[in-house]
Amino acid sequence: MFAIVEEKIDVGAMIEVASRPDCGAVSTFVGTTRVDESGENSVEYLEPSRRAGTR
């Protein structure tokens, strides 16, 4: 399920729609951005680290 919207997203409503007794967990992530010292929005790419012994 996905949606592209312009209005504020009701996370609780989305969890309710995705939750079913015959399915497993619903996992959500809510991220925000912050304004840096220059007053500009910025994005940094952080390469995921790899745990020893995993592929």
Automatic annotation (TrEMBL):
InterPro entries xrefs: MoaE_sf (IPR036563), Mopterin_biosynth_MoaE (IPR003448)
GO BP: Mo-molybdopterin cofactor biosynthetic process
One Pfam family, short name: MoaE
Top-rank lineage group of the source organism: Bacteria
Protein name: Molybdenum cofactor biosynthesis protein MoaE
Species in which this protein is naturally found: uncultured Rubrobacteraceae bacterium
Lineage: Bacteria, Bacillati, Actinomycetota, Rubrobacteria, Rubrobacterales
